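DATA SHEET
Item: assembly model
Revision: 1
Owner: S.N.
Input lines:
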Amino acid sequence: MTMLAEVLQRDRVFDFTLPPPDFSAAPDTRHGPILYLEDVTVSFDGFRALDQLSLYIDDGELRCIIGPNGAGKTTMMDVITGRTRPDSGSAWFGSRIDLLRLSETEIARGGIGRKFQTPTVFPHHSVAENLELAMAADKRVWPTLFARMDSADRDRLAEVLALIGLASLERQAAGELSHGQKQWLEIGMLLMQNPRVLLVDEPVAGMSQQEMEQTGVLLQRLAGHHSVIVVEHDMAFVRSIARRVTVLHQGSMLAEGSMDEVQNDPRVVEVYLGE
Ligand code: ADP
Ligand code: MG
């Protein structure tokens, strides 16, 4: 095993021993949304972090989820990604795939990618190598990392590099990137695995104004090709990218609509003034 391989294995960044994703299990969206949460309740010691939450995300949609601290946003993502099992309710990926029957790993490999707040790039590897590694995780080029990139792979790599705005930095070590650039690289790493749904938790936290604007452009570009769910506190940012917005409060949906609609909703105003 190469040293890189050992590190990857040890840190369990990618589990190369897993079989490749099963594309026969692709989500069926012919008759409706790509993601359905219905009446989902999650309790922690009797406290309802999610309280009969229902949420529907269309294929290719860009959805922003806002809500005060403790509203249940992260718990909702945990349910979708299989990290937390609800006490009751259902969660479907398209009309055929029951997410509650899949493990966290199966969900990730089945096409629901999640970007956590802290970027986890490989600092000593270049931007391009980070993307290659992410693709390798999906294609079992292990243990001959990088050896089997075909021309379609190289096209995809170039496409993602351009999309995340890091084409001119492809040979730079990821550890030398700015905070914002690392966040884009990590989004790029998720994209290398071609997720149908991308969950992004607070993408602009700690970013400069310019980085925020570029992140907005990136997320908007991804919509249509992927369904993108963005949880974000920064209202100016949400306004700049928002199409449909869902407001969570006390584990349930308080309001849904355009940014103007939800911001003018008296119930939403009350919840935010109380913060
Ligand atoms: P948000 O992301 O909207 O800030 P969370 O989903 O993190 O909200 O949390 C919703 C509520 O559930 C909060 O009151 C939080 O304290 C509680 N909670 C979340 N995870 C746990 C846990 N593992 N154990 C106990 N309480 C939790
Ligand atoms: Mg949270």
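QC remark: The beta strands are 35-44, 47-57, 62-66, 88-93, 97-98, 112-115, 197-201, 227-231, 244-249, 252-257.
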